[in-house]
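## retry 2 of 3
previous attempt timed out at serialization; input unchanged, resubmitting
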Amino acid sequence: MTRRAAALAMLLNAASTATSLGAQAATSTGGLTAAVGHWAAGASNAAGGTDAGITANGERWSGRSDAAALSALARRWFGAADSSFVANAMSNGAFPYAVHDATTRFGDGMLAVDFRLDGGKSDQFAGIMFGLTSRGEYYAGRYNTKDGNVAIWTFANGERRVLAKGAGEKQLPLGAWHRLELRVRGREVQVRVAGHPELTLTHQLDSAVSGRVGVWVKRDAVTAFRNFTVSAVGKAN
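## retry succeeded, writing output
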């Protein structure tokens, strides 16, 4: 086994033994609360310790979510539990996500988060979610290794749909920290990986959006996040 492979194995083993948040439980030190998927508090490191943050582990997720817990989160975040929020989160097309509690309504501004790709059977994946509504519909910007690019997606009615993919490609190393940034200005959305200009995509949405924000991953991905920041928050509609 190579030194890099051994280090990555150590990271994955530590992540698998971290304290589980479950799908809809506690909040990490970064202020992110898990809604869908299997999440653990903290981000394991190669020394066997745990850094501040939150980790999604799709390899340990059953693929199911608890309706009662989702309803409780909907009431917490939106004041009421819309049946569509639960239905979307429990659909076969749902991807894991965690919500930034302190940001109730984000419009124009910048979202950013450090991410580390630790594993995934079919893909390694990290995303920022924005425009989450009380119906459980949202947009997201992501980087993945399968395509080696950034892209912007939307999720509604239990289905994901890609809106645009960046032309530039680059395979980012696993087990290393990178920073994903997403800027919203009216209808314009830009997603990029800091320090990699080829991994930049700008897209015009059909209309301006606002809503809750957070992080987003693929169903089988193992991804750590830390230092989620919001530089500006739009006014409530």
